[in-house]
UniProtKB/TrEMBL annotation:
<keyword id="KW-0653">Protein transport</keyword>
<feature type="compositionally biased region" description="Basic and acidic residues">
    <location>
        <begin position="904"/>
        <end position="913"/>
    </location>
</feature>
<feature type="compositionally biased region" description="Acidic residues">
    <location>
        <begin position="959"/>
        <end position="980"/>
    </location>
</feature>
<feature type="region of interest" description="Disordered">
    <location>
        <begin position="951"/>
        <end position="981"/>
    </location>
</feature>
<dbReference type="InterPro" id="IPR011989">
    <property type="entry name" value="ARM-like"/>
</dbReference>
<dbReference type="Pfam" id="PF03810">
    <property type="entry name" value="IBN_N"/>
</dbReference>
<protein>
    <submittedName>
        <fullName>Importin beta-like SAD2</fullName>
    </submittedName>
</protein>
<dbReference type="InterPro" id="IPR016024">
    <property type="entry name" value="ARM-type_fold"/>
</dbReference>
<keyword id="KW-0813">Transport</keyword>
<feature type="compositionally biased region" description="Acidic residues">
    <location>
        <begin position="914"/>
        <end position="938"/>
    </location>
</feature>
<dbReference type="GO" id="GO:0005635">
    <property type="term" value="C:nuclear envelope"/>
</dbReference>
<dbReference type="InterPro" id="IPR001494">
    <property type="entry name" value="Importin-beta_N"/>
</dbReference>
<keyword id="KW-0963">Cytoplasm</keyword>
<dbReference type="GO" id="GO:0005829">
    <property type="term" value="C:cytosol"/>
</dbReference>
<feature type="domain" description="Importin N-terminal">
    <location>
        <begin position="24"/>
        <end position="98"/>
    </location>
</feature>
<feature type="region of interest" description="Disordered">
    <location>
        <begin position="904"/>
        <end position="938"/>
    </location>
</feature>
<dbReference type="GO" id="GO:0006606">
    <property type="term" value="P:protein import into nucleus"/>
</dbReference>
Length: 1051
C-alpha cells in the first residue's frame, strides 16, 4: 500500500460513515503484513505534512502491529519482513525525538517492545545512536535519547546478575554524558513542564540502572559526587507553585510533582540500602555505602527536614512526596549519626508536621460524604497504605516510640492527653475542628497500642482512658469519631482489664457499644465496628464465651447484611472469627450462611468479570480477587465448624458444587488453593462422596497435568479422600477410569521437565495412598510405580524430601506384596540397586548422629513395614541375590525403629501426649474413649482439621545439607502434613516387627539364626531389646482396650 493510499485508508478509519470506516479498516487489516507496510505506517506517523489526527491513527496502527507481530511465535516464521524491521529500528530514535506528544506516547510503547525483544542481539547500533543523541546540542534529540535510554535501563531492572551484563555497558557508555545533562537541566532558569519531564526521565533511568546493585562507575569520585549533588539539588529545588494545578486530581499528573517524587524515591532507597555499609555484601555496594553514609545521608536528611518543616508554614508537597520524606526520616531513626541530627527537630516534626497529618481533614470529609465505600476501600487497602502520607506518619510515630522512646513518648503522650482533655471539656459543644484534632489523637494512640500496653505508667492507665474518653464517643454526632472509637476499642480489646483479659464491666461496655455500632446509620462506622468485633472475640478465653453466645444470631445477620453492601476482606475475616469462636452454635445457621456467602462470591466474581472488559484500573481486579478469596475462606470456616454433623455436608454440597465445578479449571487459578480446600472438606466429612463430586476428580487431575503443578499439594488432599473413602468406586469405575487417569498424572509429573520438586514429591505420596488403600487389588500398578520412582531417582534429585518419598514407594510396594515387588524389581534389573539404596539411606547420618533421611515418623514406619514384610517371606520366595543380604535388612529395620523410638521419646519430652507416637491411630482412639472425649472418629477428624488449617502454608523445599535440625521440629514440619487415616494406622511397627521375628523363630529356627546370628553382639542385644519393647507396647494396648471397654460399659 503506497503512501497516498495508506493515508486515505487511515483517514477513512475516522469517517462517520460506518461503511467507509469498515472498508478502510478491512483494507488496513488485509495489507498489515505486506512488505513495507509497517515502515509506511511509521513514516505517516512521523510526517509533519500529514493531518495530526491521521498521524495519530497511523501511530496507533503501527503500535498494534508491532505489539502483536514483531516477535515471531515459537516455531513459526515472523510475519514481518526482516528488512522492514531493520528499517523501523533505524528510524525509531529519530522518530521519538521529532514526534509530537500524541504520537510519541504511541511510539514509546513500540520502543519498549523493540528494546525488550531486539537489544542487543538484533539492534546493536542502538546504544551508539543513543550516545550520539545525548552528546548532541539538539534538545529534541536529547529528549528522545532520554526516552529510549529509560527503556534500555528498565529492561534489566529486575534481571538476575547473569542477565544484567549488557546493562553495565549501557551505564558506562551513557552515565557520564547523562550526568552532564542532569547538571545542565538543573542549572536552567526554567520552570517548564518539559524540563520537569526530562528531570524525571533522568531519575527513572538512574532508578532502573541501580535497582539491583550499584554499577562500578558510580564509585568514581566525579560520578559519585556529581550524581549525589544533582539529587540533592533537585530535592531542595523550589516548586513553581504558580503553575500548581488547582484540581487535586490534576496535581497527581503535574510533571514537577513527578520529578520530586522520583528524586525522593531514589534518596529513600539509597538510604535504606546503603545507609549502613555493614548491611552490604558486594564490594561495589560496600564502597558506595561507605561514601553515602559519610557524605550524603546527613545532607539528604537536612533536605528532607527542610521540606517537611516548610509544610507547617503553609508550604506544599504532593502526598506521595510527603510519604517519601517521612520514610527517609523514619529510616534516620536507625543510625546514631542521623538520629543525632534528627533529634533536635523531633518535637517540631511530631507536633507540627506528623500530628496534623494524622487528623481527619477536608479530603477525608469529602470522601466520607460523597463516596463512603471508597473511603472504606482506601482505609483498608494495603496498597493505599504504602503510598499514604497518613500511614507514613503513623509509621514514623510508631518507630520513634519504639526505637527512641526516651523523652519522645512522654512528650507526645502529653500532647495527645491534652487533646483528649480539651475535647472532653468542650463536649458536647466541641467544634468540628476540635473533633478532627481528636480523631488524630485517637489514631496516634491506636498506632502506639503495642508500646502503651507494655510501658508503665501508660499500661495501667489504658482502661480509665477507654472509659473516660472512648466510650462517650460512641454517641458522638461526628461519624468519623464514632468510627474511630470502634477502631480504637478493637486495638485495646486484649488488655488486662481490672477483672482480667476479656472480662469485666469495661470490656463488656466496649463490646456492647461496638456491636451496637454495627447498626450505625453511616457505613464506615458499621465496617469499623464489625472489623473490631474480631479483636474482642479473640480476647475472650474459651471458658468465658458462654455469655456472648446470645450475640451469635445478631452478629451473623449484621455481617451478612454488611457483606451485601460492600466487599471487604477484613469484614470477611471478622465473620470467620465469629464462626470459629462459636463453631458449636453454627449448625442452625450453616446452610443459610453458606447460601449467602455463595451468593456474595458469585456477585464479586461477576463484578470482576465485568471490570475486565471495561476501563477500570488494575487495582479493582485485585480488590475483587481478595474479596473472593476472603469469602472462600469464610466458607471453609463454615464447613469446618460443622464437622461433627456430617449430614449437613450434603446440603453444603448442593450450594457449593457450582463454584467447585466452575473453578476447578483455569478460571480458578487465583483461588485454586481455597477451591481445593472446600473440596477437601466435602469429600472428607460428608457421609459419602456423591456421583456429582466424583465428576471433579478428573478435572483436578487435568488441572495438575496442564497448569496446577504448583498446587499439587492442595489437590492431593481431596484425591486422598476420594481413594480412601470410596475405594471401590475408584477401582471399578470404567467411564471414567479413575485409576488410569491417576496413573497418567503420576507419569506426567514424574517424567516431566521443569516441575518444582516440592510439588513433584506429591506423586510418590499419591502412589503410597493407592498402594495402602487398595492392597491386593492393584497388582498391575506395582511395576509401573517402581519403574517411575527409580527412573526419577536415577539422574539424582536436589530435594531430599523428594528422594526420600521416592524410596518410601519401595517400602509401600514391599508391604503391599513383597514377593511381587521382588520379582518386579528383578525383572526390571533393579533389585540389587534398589535394596542397596534403601540400606544406604537408612544408615546415612547427620553430624549429630541422627538419621539424615526419612525425617517423618510415617516414612520410617512405612519402610519398617515394607522391610519386615520382606523378612517374612520364606527363603524359597527370595531371589538368590537377596538372600545374602537379609541380615542387613534386619539391621536396617532396627536402625529405623531405634530412630523412630528416639523421635517419639523426644516428642513426648516436649509435652505433647495427645497423639500416638508410633503413628498408630487406634491407640489415640482408645485414649480418647478412656478420657470421655467422644468417639474415636471425632479424634481423627480433629487431626484432619489441623491438617486442613495448615494446607494453605506451602511446604518447605528439601535440603540436602548435612545439617543438625532437631528431630522434634522434623516431626512437626514433616509428619503433621500426613495426619490422615490410613490402613497402616492400625499396625504398630514395633509389634509387627517383633511378631514377624517370633513367627520366624518358631517356624524356622535356622532361618532366624541366619537373620540375627550374623549380627554383632550389640545389634543382637538391640534386637532383643526391641522385641521386649514390643511386648510392653502390646500389654499397654490390651490394658487401654480393657479400660475403654469398661468405661463404655459404665456409660
Amino acid at each position: 500500500m503506497d503512501a497516498a493510499v495508506l493515508v486515505a485508508a487511515l483517514s477513512g478509519c475516522q469517517s462517520p460513515d460506518p461503511a467507509i470506516r469498515k472498508a478502510a479498516e478491512e483494507a488496513l487489516n488485509q495489507s498489515k503484513h505486506a512488505r513495507g507496510q509497517v515502515v509506511n505506517l511509521l513514516r505517516v506517523a512521523l510526517e509533519d505534512s500529514v493531518d495530526p489526527a491521521v498521524r495519530q491513527v497511523a501511530a496507533i496502527s503501527f503500535k498494534n502491529l508491532v505489539k502483536r507481530d514483531w516477535a515471531a511465535e515459537e516455531g513459526k516464521p515472523c510475519l514481518l519482513a526482516e528488512e522492514d524491521k531493520a528499517a523501523v529500528r533505524e528510524a525509531m530514535l529519530e522518530g521519538i525525538a521529532r514526534s509530537p506528544h500524541a504520537v510519541r506516547v504511541q511510539l514509546g510503547e513500540c520502543v519498549r517492545s523493540l528494546v525488550y525483544c531486539d537489544y542487543p542481539e538484533h539492534w546493536p547500533q542502538l546504544l551508539g545512536q543513543v550516545q550520539a543523541y545525548l552528546a548532541s546540542q539538539d534538545q529534541a534529540r536529547i529528549s528522545g535519547a532520554l526516552y529510549v535510554l529509560r527503556f534500555l535501563a528498565r529492561k534489566y531492572e529486575f534481571r538476575d546478575e547473569d542477565e544484567r551484563a549488557p546493562l553495565e555497558g549501557v551505564v558506562n557508555a551513557t552515565f557520564p554524558t547523562l550526568l552532564q545533562i542532569f547538571q545542565m537541566l538543573l542549572a536552567m532558569d526554567s520552570h517548564s513542564p518539559e524540563l520537569a519531564e526530562l528531570l524525571k526521565l533522568v531519575c527513572k533511568t538512574f532508578w532502573s540502572a541501580t535497582y539491583m546493585s550499584i554499577p562500578s562507575i558510580l564509585n568514581q569520585e566525579a560520578q559519585f559526587a556529581g550524581w549525589m549533588g544533582c539529587f540533592h539539588a533537585l530535592m531542595v529545588k523550589p516548586l513553581p507553585l504558580d503553575q500548581l494545578p488547582a484540581n487535586p486530581d490534576a496535581r497527581k499528573g503535574w510533571q514537577w510533582n513527578k520529578a520530586k517524587k522520583w528524586v525522593m524515591h531514589i534518596a529513600s532507597r539509597l538510604f535504606n540500602r546503603y545507609g549502613d555499609p555493614k548491611l552490604c555484601s558486594e564490594k561495589q555496594d560496600q564502597l558506595f555505602a561507605q561514601r553515602f553514609q559519610k557524605e550524603c545521608s546527613l545532607t539528604f536528611l537536612q533536605a528532607a527536614l527542610a521540606q517537611l518543616a516548610a509544610l507547617s508554614q503553609g508550604g506544599y508537597q504532593s502526598p506521595r512526596v510527603i510519604n517519601l520524606l517521612l520514610q527517609y526520616i523514619t529510616q534516620a531513626l536507625a543510625y546514631s549519626a542521623t538520629w543525632k541530627a534528627l533529634k533536635p527537630h523531633v518535637e517540631q516534626m511530631l507536633l507540627h508536621v506528623v500530628f496534623p497529618l494524622l487528623c481527619f481533614d477536608d479530603e477525608d470529609a469529602e470522601l466520607w460524604g460523597e463516596d463512603p465505600q471508597e473511603y472504606i476501600r482506601k482505609g483498608y487497602d494495603i496498597m493505599e497504605d504504602i503510598y499514604s502520607m497518613k500511614t507514613a506518619a503513623m509509621t514514623f510515630l510508631s518507630e520513634l516510640c519504639k526505637a527512641r522512646a526516651k523523652g519522645n513518648l512522654d512528650m507526645l503522650m502529653a500532647h495527645l492527653v491534652g487533646v483528649l482533655n480539651e475535647y472532653k471539656a468542650a463536649h458536647p459543644a466541641a467544634p468540628p475542628a476540635l473533633a478532627r484534632k481528636l480523631d488524630g489523637a485517637l489514631l496516634a494512640i491506636g498506632t502506639l497500642s503495642d508500646v502503651l500496653k507494655e510501658k508503665k505508667p501508660y499500661s495501667g492507665q489504658l482502661e480509665p482512658m477507654l472509659l473516660q474518653h472512648v466510650v462517650p464517643l460512641f454517641d458522638s454526632p461526628h461519624g468519623h469519631l464514632r468510627a474511630k472509637a470502634c477502631w480504637l476499642a478493637g486495638h485495646y480489646a486484649d488488655i488486662e482489664f481490672g477483672d482480667g483479659q476479656g472480662k469485666g464491666p469495661t470490656f463488656s461496655a466496649l463490646l456492647q457499644r461496638v456491636v451496637a455500632a454495627i447498626g450505625d446509620p453511616e457505613l464506615p462506622v458499621r465496617i469499623d465496628a464489625a472489623v473490631s468485633v474480631r479483636s474482642f472475640l479473640d480476647a475472650v478465653d474459651e471458658e468465658d464465651m458462654d455469655p456472648l453466645r446470645p450475640l451469635v444470631p445478631q452478629l451473623l445477620q449484621q455481617f451478612l447484611t454488611l457483606s451485601n453492601e460492600i466487599d471487604n476482606e477484613d469484614l470477611t475475616f471478622s465473620l470467620e472469627t465469629v464462626i470459629e469462636r462459636f463453631a458449636a452454635d453454627m449448625a442452625p445457621y450453616a446452610t443459610g450462611l453458606c447460601q449467602q456467602l455463595a451468593q456474595q462470591f458469585w456477585r464479586i466474581t461477576a463484578a470482576g468479570e465485568g471490570a475486565e472488559g471495561g476501563d477500570d484500573d488494575e487495582d479493582g481486579g485485585d480488590d475483587g480477587a481478595l474479596a473472593a478469596y476472603g469469602v472462600l475462606r469464610a466458607l471453609s470456616t463454615v464447613l469446618e465448624s460443622i464437622h461433627g454433623l456430617p449430614q449437613l455436608y450434603l446440603q453444603m454440597e448442593e450450594v457449593l458444587f457450582p463454584i467447585l465445578e466452575r473453578y476447578t479449571s483455569t478460571d480458578g487459578q487465583d483461588i485454586f488453593e481455597e477451591i481445593m480446600q472446600l473440596a477437601t472438606y466435602l469429600t472428607y466429612f460428608a457421609p459419602e462422596i456423591s456421583p456429582r463430586m466424583w465428576t471433579l476428580y478428573p478435572r483436578m487431575l487435568q488441572c495438575v497435568n496442564e497448569w496446577a503443578i504448583d498446587y499439587f499439594e492442595e489437590v492431593l488432599l481431596p484425591l486422598d479422600n476420594y481413594i480412601s473413602k470410596a475405594t471401590d468406586v475408584f477401582l471399578t469405575s470404567q467411564s471414567p477410569n479413575y485409576l488410569a487417569l491417576t496413573n497418567q498424572t503420576l507419569e506426567t509429573v514424574l517424567t516431566g521437565d521443569g516441575y518444582p520438586e516440592d510439588q513433584v514429591v506429591c506423586a510418590p505420596r499419591l502412589m503410597g495412598v493407592i498402594l495402602q488403600h487398595c492392597r491386593g487389588r492393584v497388582d498391575a500398578c506395582v511395576g509401573p510405580y517402581l519403574a517411575l520412582a527409580l527412573r526419577r531417582l536415577a539422574p539424582g534429585v536436589e530435594s531430599q524430601d523428594l528422594g526420600d518419598a521416592l524410596m518410601v514407594v519401595l517400602g509401600d510396594a514391599l508391604y503391599y506384596n513383597a514377593a511381587l515387588t521382588l520379582s518386579t524389581l528383578a525383572a526390571q534389573g533393579a533389585l540389587g540397586q534398589a535394596l542397596q539404596a534403601l540400606h544406604t539411606t537408612a544408615f546415612a547420618n547427620r553430624k549429630s548422629g541422627k538419621m539424615k533421611h526419612y525425617s517423618s515418623p510415617r516414612e520410617k514406619k512405612v519402610l519398617v513395614l515394607g522391610l519386615t514384610a520382606l523378612l517374612a517371606l520364606p527363603d524359597a520366595a527370595l531371589p538368590a541375590e537377596v538372600k545374602p543380604g537379609m541380615p542387613q535388612v534386619t539391621s536396617a529395620i532396627l536402625r529405623l525403629l531405634l530412630a523412630l523410638k528416639q523421635q517419639q521419646e523426644e516428642h513426648r519430652a516436649h509435652g505433647d501426649s495427645d497423639s500416638d507416637e508410633s503413628g498408630n491411630e487406634s491407640d489415640l482412639e482408645d485414649d480418647s474413649e478412656g478420657e470421655e472425649l467422644g468417639d474415636s472418629d471425632d479424634e481423627v477428624d480433629e487431626a484432619y482439621l489441623k491438617r486442613l488449617q495448615r494446607a494453605a502454608a506451602k511446604r518447605a523445599g528439601g535440603d540436602d545439607e548435612d545439617d543438625d535440625e532437631d528431630d522434634y521440629d522434623e516431626y512437626w514440619t514433616e509428619d503433621e502434613e500426613e495426619e490422615v487415616s490410613s490402613p497402616i494406622d492400625a499396625v504398630d511397627p514395633f509389634i509387627f516387627f517383633a511378631e514377624t521375628l517370633h513367627a520366624i523363630q518358631g517356624g524356622d529356627p535356622p532361618r532366624f539364626a541366619g537373620l540375627v546370628g550374623g549380627l554383632d553382639a550389640n545389634v543382637q542385644a538391640a534386637v532383643q531389646g526391641m522385641m521386649q519393647y514390643a511386648v510392653q507396647l502390646k500389654e499397654e494396648q490390651l490394658q487401654k482396650a480393657a479400660a475403654a471397654t469398661a468405661a463404655n460399659g459404665r456409660a
